[in-house]
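Hypothesis: this fold can be encoded by more than one sequence.
Test: take the structure tokens below, design a sequence, compare later.
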């Protein structure tokens, strides 16, 4: 049995943002900024991860700077999205591998996925990482942009939900908070939101029974309040034809919170992605995301001057976000 206390302790005065780093060790400018700005947490990329000893030392330094066991995020999905790489860490399979196997032998696929998830979790726990931006709950759509591709388990919402639930449960059992992404669904987009703003024109009725379904199933599950979610930088024309989900109170209130029923911590995808370029300065975009209903803003490029801008212009964690983080949950070892 594990006791998961969340990240609220000591975070009352934390900035409502996740910061990033430029390299494998902290610069004097980063040390000064992080200590004074007190960001809620940090995200690591491959540029920050040289070997296990270095990563562990770096993470310990970050936690010491803010004076608490803060969230340390990473994208360790498996396949082409993993920041810990060989030769010091294992190479992991893309999630499509387990989705394909599930179609012919569900029990065997779930057991293999459980083993893979626990191995990933073991690497993260050893390093001091406590939040993983995984699993991807987007559906695979033939003909859509390959930015999702084999990161998706399947084109079947029920299969994606079942496999995604297994990943979430096993991460939680290992002490890792999973982030389901990219809510409410990036799979059918024909553009890469890292490079441009995607538009989805599907009818709401179709989205409810396909794209949104895996997120809804996880939100309604026994661990629905424990996971975080990452919003998609996508304009859904039939929901809000002007703003991407990350900046849209209509999409967040009506779809993510009400229809999907997600009650956990919501973090926007990276503010520096090209999809958001036309929506203002970095701090303007961050404040729009927070104002729309995101709990946390995410900045991934590791530029100190831009993080200084965020530190000067963003609020601390809101009362609603602190309440979401204050949950103390006891859960038994969960089956796949």
């Amino acid at each position: 049995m594990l006791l998961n206390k969340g990240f609220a302790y000591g975070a009352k005065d934390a900035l409502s943002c996740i910061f990033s780093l430029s390299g494998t060790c902290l610069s004097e400018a980063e040390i000064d900024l992080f200590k004074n700005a007190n960001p809620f947490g940090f995200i690591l990329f491959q540029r920050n991860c040289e070997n296990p000893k270095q990563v562990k030392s770096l993470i310990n330094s970050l936690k010491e700077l803010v004076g608490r066991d803060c969230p340390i995020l990473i994208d360790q999905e498996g396949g082409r999205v993993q920041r810990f790489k060989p030769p010091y860490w294992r190479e992991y399979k893309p999630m499509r591998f387990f989705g394909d196997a599930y179609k012919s032998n569900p029990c065997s696929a779930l057991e293999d996925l459980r083993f893979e998830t626990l191995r990933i979790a073991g690497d993260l726990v050893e390093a001091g990482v406590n939040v993983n931006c995984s699993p991807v709950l987007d559906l695979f759509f033939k003909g859509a942009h390959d930015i999702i591709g084999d990161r998706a388990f399947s084109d079947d919402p029920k299969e994606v939900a079942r496999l995604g639930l297994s990943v979430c449960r096993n991460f939680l059992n290992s002490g890792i908070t999973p982030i389901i992404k990219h809510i409410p669904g990036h799979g059918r987009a024909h553009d890469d939101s890292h490079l441009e703003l995607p538009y989805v024109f599907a009818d709401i009725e179709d989205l409810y029974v396909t794209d949104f379904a895996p997120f809804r199933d996880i939100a309604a599950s026994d661990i629905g309040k424990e996971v975080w979610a990452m919003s998609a930088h996508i304009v859904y024309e039939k929901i809000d034809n002007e703003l991407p989900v990350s900046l849209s109170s209509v999409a967040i209130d009506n779809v993510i919170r009400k229809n999907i029923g997600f009650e956990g911590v919501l973090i926007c995808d990276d503010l520096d992605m090209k999809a958001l370029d036309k929506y203002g300065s970095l701090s303007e975009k961050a404040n729009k995301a927070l104002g729309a209903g995101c709990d946390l803003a995410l900045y991934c490029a590791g530029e100190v001057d831009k993080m200084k801008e965020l530190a000067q212009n963003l609020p601390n964690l809101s009362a609603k976000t602190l309440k979401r983080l204050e949950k103390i949950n006891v859960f038994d070892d969960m089956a796949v």
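The two ends are 15 Å apart (CA to CA). The chain has a mean pLDDT of 94.
Hypothesis status: open.
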